[in-house]
Write a structure and sequence with these properties.
This protein is an alpha+beta fold. It is built from 3 helices and 8 strands; from the N terminus they run βααββββββαβ. A 4-stranded antiparallel sheet has the order 1-2-3-4. Strands 7-6-5-8 form a 4-stranded mixed sheet, with no helix packed on it.
């Protein structure tokens, strides 16, 4: 089953704010005529960074199957076997570590001994219900 990522106002504001800010600064420099011909190499880099931000914003999703849990967020992706997952913490927000998520108050999936990944599916409850159908001994904590 595939789950889209929830997008909260904080993440949306940061991503779209950075995009508008960078595009605005670039356009101002172009319209003022202050961009020299030898500075054009910067534009592909700016476009690449903006493309990466948009890819992460619109390309974040999760997939559950009997084989495992797959997460994707732009260039960040991975697969975790369902049998390696031992705990899910609900309503948790982490600011460090692996975070293929676009919202706060998501799920912290703990697997192996010390590994964890933070995700933000549209519905935490639907995700938990689906994963418990695949492996019913996962500890759910708040």
């Amino acid at each position: 089953m595939k789950f889209s990522s929830r997008k909260d106002i904080l993440f949306t504001t940061i991503i779209l704010g950075v995009i508008v800010f960078v595009i605005g600064l670039t356009l101002i420099e172009i319209l003022k005529g202050e961009v020299q011909q030898d500075e054009y190499w910067v534009f592909p880099i700016i476009l690449a960074v903006l493309g990466l931000l948009l890819w992460m914003f619109f390309g974040t999703n999760y997939e559950l199957s009997k084989d495992g849990f797959i997460y994707r967020s732009g260039p960040i992706n991975g697969k975790i076997s369902i049998h390696r997952i031992h705990e899910i913490v609900k309503g948790k927000t982490t600011w460090i570590g692996l975070k293929p998520a676009t919202a706060r108050n998501g799920l912290l999936i703990k697997y192996d001994k010390y590994n964890e990944v933070y995700i933000s599916p549209k519905s935490n409850e639907a995700f938990i219900k689906q994963i418990l159908e695949l492996k019913n001994d996962i500890i759910i904590s708040e």
